[in-house]
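Z., the sequence and structure:
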Amino acid sequence: MYVVTKRIDFCYGHRLLDYDGICKHPHGHNAVVEVDVRTDHLDKRNMVADFSDIKRIVKGWIDRELDHKMILRQDDPLVAPLKTLGEPMFLLESNPTVERIARLIFDKAREHGLDIVSVRVWETPTSVATYNGE
């Protein structure tokens, strides 16, 4: 089995509702995403997938939808004032935990045709969440 991994960096803000820790307050992260693509057989180019294709698809989506945005739960009271101010947001139906963000990136990459087997999102240099679809 062959696996390639593409690393993507992005910045985002969020907060967690119904949470009793410091992450209930708005704050930001410099995230590192690692996307794993796997295959049993290399393509005609002798590749699992072209790194530039992974970058175009996954980083392109992250740059458009998540980078430098507040990722919030859709019923967060911050949504209305931020919308009034014209601030960029990405809204989720559930708390924007790093676990939820990993699954979101996994699902969006799959929708765009990449055979991703795992997505890791490093929220900090010492904290990572992984989603592998299983």
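The longest strand covers residues 2-14. The chain has one domain: 2-128.

Let me know what you think.
H.
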